[in-house]
Amino acid sequence: GENVEQHPSTLSVQEGDSAVIKCTYSDSASNYFPWYKQELGKGPQLIIDIRSNVGEKKDQRIAVTLNKTAKHFSLHITETQPEDSAVYFCAASSNTGNQFYFGTGTSLTVIP
Amino acid sequence: EAGVVQSPRYKIIEKKQPVAFWCNPISGHNTLYWYRQNLGQGPELLIRYENEEAVDDSQLPKDRFSAERLKGVDSTLKIQPAELGDSAVYLCASSFNSITEQYFGPGTRLTVT
After folding, report:
1. Chain centroid to CA A23
2. Does A34 contact chain B (CB < 8 Å)?
3. B105, B23 in Cβ contact below 8 A?
4. What is the pLDDT of residues A96-105, one digit of tens each?
5. Model pLDDT for residues B21-40, shown as the tens digit of each residue
6. Fewest CB atoms within 10 Å of the CB: A25, A84, B33, B96?
7. Cα(A22)–Cα(A109) distance, rounded to whole angstroms?
8. Please, what's the largest Cα pairwise distance for chain B?
9. What integer is the mean pLDDT of A67-72?
């Protein structure tokens, strides 16, 4: 099955700086890559996703890049704010597998 | 529009006791998922339903876990008997179909003592 690795496990940045979280996957059939934000005591919330026919996608301060050849994708948050502090999870899935495989999460702390 | 609803939010039980979790997905979503999330880990799929049919339950410990989605809408996940290692957050998610984005509920935090 798919194996998704996520780095770093913890990340601290100053408010206003950028944060980058990286994930790698193993199954070349994976073609859908969502990112979730999970705040304490809540379920994961979808913040952005990308499909394998696209190399980059942006939504305001959040962007995701995908390199299918290298089997890695990254989340970029610019102009970080304290409310961005949360645990972020990447995931990968394929149409054939129909199952989401999650990374182990990155705890992001934005220091005011 | 209401999101995915789960209850209870918290449950504390002694080992060997039974426990049940309930999930009501987003209206119109045909696919329903149950995940288990251990502390410091990402969610791991337990079972996936397409309408009322369980199409992927390969990760469900069938000796003690069971699930149902009788009318293809809400779902119940049961553990009987619970073990100490079952302490985790149980998340329910739903999607329009199996290849579209998933939306998660708030989860049920289970503590087995």
Report:
1. 7
2. yes
3. yes
4. 556 789 999 9
5. 999 999 999 999 999 999 98
6. B96
7. 16
8. 38
9. 93
